Amino acid sequence: xxxxxxxxxxxxxxxxxxxxxxxxxxxxxxxxxxxxxxxxxxxxxxxxxxxxxxxxxxxxxxxxxxxxxxxxxxxxxxxxxxxxxxxxxxxxxxxxxxxxxxxxxxxxxxxxxxxxxxxxxxxxxxxxxxxxxxxxxxxxxxxxxxxxxxxxxxxxxxxxxxxxxxxxxxxxxxxxxxxxxxxxxxxxxxxxxxxxxxxxxxxxxxxxxxxxxxxxxxxxxxxxxxxxxxxxxxxxxxxxxxxxxxxxxxxxxxxxxxxxxxxxxxxxxxxxxxxxxxxxxxxxxxxxxxxxxxxxxxxxxxxxxxxxxxxxxxxxxxxxxxxxxxxxxxxxxxxxxxxxxxxxxxxxxxxxxxxxxxxxxxxxxxxxxxxxxxxxxxxxxxxxxxxxxxxxxxxxxxxxxxxxxxxxxxxxxxxxxxxxxxxxxxxxxxxxxxxxxxxxxxxx
Amino acid sequence: xxxxxxxxxxxxxxxxxxxxxxxxxxxxxxxxxxxxxxxxxxxxxxxxxxxxxxxxxxxxxxxxxxxxxxxxxxxxxxxxxxxxxxxxxxxxxxxxxxxxxxxxxxxxxxxxxxxxxxxxxxxxxxxxxxxxxxxxxxxxxxxxxxxxxxxxxxxxxxxxxxxxxxxxxxxxxxxxxxxxxxxxxxxxxxxxxxxxxxxxxxxxxxxxxxxxxxxxxxxxxxxxxxxxxxxxxxxxxxxxxxxxxxxxxxxxxxxxxxxxxxxxxxxxxxxxxxxxxxxxxxxxxxxxxxxxxxxxxxxxxxxxxxxxxxxxxxxxxxxxxxxxxxxxxxxxxxxx
Lengths: 444, 336
Description:
Distance between the termini of chain B: 47 Å
Order of helices and strands of chain A: HHHHHHHHEEEEEHEHHHEEHH
Oligomer: heterodimer
Structural class of chain A: mainly alpha
Strand content of chain A: under 5%
Largest sheet of chain B: 2 strands, antiparallel
Distance between the termini of chain A: 52 Å
Number of helices of chain A: 14
Number of strands of chain A: 8
Number of domains of chain B: 1
Order of helices and strands of chain B: HHHHHHHHHHHHHEEH
Mean pLDDT of chain A: 91
Strand content of chain B: under 5%
Helix content of chain B: over 70%
Radius of gyration of chain B: 20 Å
Low-confidence stretches of chain A: 440-444
Low-confidence stretches of chain B: none
Largest interface: A-B, 68 and 64 residues
Number of helices of chain B: 14
Strand order of the largest sheet of chain A: 1-6
Largest sheet of chain A: 2 strands, antiparallel
Structural class of chain B: mainly alpha
Number of domains of chain A: 1
Mean pLDDT of chain B: 88
């Protein structure tokens, strides 16, 4: 494995690991404070037990998210020193704000987890809410920085240059860099994705537990809270996805072509569902084609011209297969979860008894990993889809990689550590669930 | 605004060494405590750290963010030349935070507690050691941007006598800080007496390893010994740090919680102050004799302006919140 591939894989592994915990850290606190609020208002002890059970999950996942996030702040320089050397001064601002938000999150999580007896109940509740809000805000800042890599803004290249090869950026404007053209669509898409994926995973776990014991009130209430929260965002996600796709079409047409497996430039291009793109024959086979829909979705016009991969030099192509598959998986799961969200509301409002039916619970149980799979697939689309660039159109990933050899060792170390941690995290969750029934009702 | 940014950078490093250092040191103290008091020490450390350790470790992130935002070339240089110890330090950080949380939150208490505890304790030793090693390496003058081979570029900058002794010094300094903090967290007089004894041992080791740092700098040809003793300010700060010690013992014996904490905080301030009175504004000393400083490596003015304001506004939120956190969990009653 060459150094570049090893470095990219290390980054991918670190991000793929962190993103799960980041999503949970952004979402679980909201589920927790909803349950906590219901306890404060209704004084129903089930909600108290649920709040405490969820807060333990928050504590474990936040800690892993925080340490893996700390690691990422170093990985940027360990793997991409050539990138950070120039990007740091341009795009450091959202990271400096993110530091504050993350700090507030860490302070509030301490207050929430250990403040049961020490704080006024509403101050305590607010500290939990602030964990969620600062988690979302810090997520938004980080995604702003990523959006800048897709839509570089807020600086100029040195006069007469097309890259940083002969000098760093000039006329830096950190505000324009942070609020780059892609920041709205990307932060919106990611925040909604985090809410949806985590809520469906939480709902899925409680559905599994309900299948074992239908009468457990705690799991019933947990399921309702998680699905009510998650379904709203699942329904909103296709809209935000449309916004993102239009943005990609405008600024990164080569990424859109790879997402769609579109090799030929075409007016009135059809939308390909599924299919296997073949870079050699330059065709995407076995897919279902819906005429003219891609042109409409990308540009709002059924006859619009969609650029194919062939319009770009092959050296600028991202790997088509993973980007296409990632996109198909993400969109497929997105629609499935939106559909289940609609079904949930129909049942909840019209046919409440079906909410505890085996088939519905099984369906929700199957959703447990799906949202996270969609999140990972989405990151593959955006990160692999931007290759070979690290800053789109400005700096190639290969030019920013660390000169330190043997990156494969770095990769293996982190794969091993993260694999062990993932296994332990799952194991710990199962132990939490085992202990749930014997959980003390009295707050510590 | 450059000075605002530098101030925040130094303050972050200082608070990380004080509060984060106390957390690391607590792990080292657990590691070295055996026999009957071990279980009590473990439960004391867990209780004392749990609500605040996440916040304490944010200071490292703040320092790193300031570094790559305001001094990007320093950040890139360090993360290339010192990538090996930094990766080892990061793995320690991951294992330590996870193990501590698992120990605290595992719903079922069984033999896995022993594993969490061991991982937490050893990584508590490893992280400050590599942190110190990195600090030693950046002033050792062995970092080079154009190495002729792997060893010169990525191993020699940190694998030397001097850097290793700085690592040992930092680890012992952190355990000293922790033992002082734990005296005032103790449950009863016996435990307090135990930690007073431990902090006395820790200070002896710290002073000894400090002496070793000076000795190794001479052996390794690092411009450190002469620089330190050729500077009036650094000498007087070191004297101040030493004078604090007998006062500290008196205060501890009287069971005064806050004066003891403030004194140890002041000592650390004197030590860091002595360090920077010698080295300011240097950030990295390179093998070719040149230096990356706060001045010659800083980002353009506009970046510093925005960063400075972000830090000022951020601190207006963080400091009150942090004081509130510590007030809730650490203001407790005076030792009886």
